[in-house]
Amino acid sequence: MSPLPTRMSDHWWWRPGVRPGRRLLVWHILLDDQPQARTLVRECQSRLAGLDGLDLVPTRWLHMTTQIIGFADEISGAEVEAMTDAAAKRLRLLAPVTADIGKLWFHSEAVMLGIRPARALDPVRAAVRAAAGETVRVHQLADEPDWTPHVSVAYSHGDGPAAPVIEVFAVPPSACSFTVRAVHLVAQERTDRLYRWEPVAKVPLGG
Fold this sequence. Notes:
This protein is α+β, with helices and mostly antiparallel strands. Helix content is 23%, strand content 35%. It has one domain: Cyclic phosphodiesterase (Cyclic Phosphodiesterase, Chain: A, Alpha-Beta Complex), CATH 3.90.1140. Strands 3-7-6-5-9 form a five-stranded antiparallel β-sheet, with helices on one face. Strands 4-2-10-11 form a four-stranded antiparallel β-sheet. Strands 1-8 form a two-stranded antiparallel ribbon. This is 2'-5' RNA ligase.
C-alpha cells in the first residue's frame, strides 16, 4: 500500500467467482465492542464526507477481514462446524490481543486504518487458517498468504485524483487502543456498493 496512490480507482469490480447473491464464508474481527475505534472511524469519515467518489462504510458493517475461507455453496455444514470447533481449540490458547489502531493506509481503492504493532494479530489469523486448512476441502487460503490487518473507512467507486483524499489527513487522527477478544465467522455477500453478512459463529480468544 505504498507509495501513496496518485489516483483513486473503483473498488467494486467483480472478483473471480463472486456474483450477486453468492456468499463467502469469512472470518472477521468486528468493531461491535470497540467504541473508541468506531469513534475514530467516524472522525475519519467526517473528513471524507465532502469528497466525491467514496462510499463510507456504515458503522454496522465495519470489520477487519481476517481470512476469506471460500464460497458458502462449496463448503458443507459439517465442514463449517468442524472448522469452527478447530478454531475454538486454537483460539482458546490465545489471550485477548491489544494493539493501537489508527495508522493511515491509502490504497487506490480505499482509505484504511491499520494497527501497531503490525504483526500483533498474526497468531489469531494463523489459528483460523490452520483450522480451515485441516477441515475445509475447497478453500481460498492460498489466494492471500500475506495479511495487512486493517479496517476500511471508505471505498472508492470511481476514478479521480487521490490528492484530495490524502490531503484531508495532513494532520493524522490520533490512534486508539483496540482489543480483540473474539473472531466472527460470517456469510458475506456484496449488495450494491456494500459488504453485508449474516453471523455464523463467534469464537472467543482465551476460552
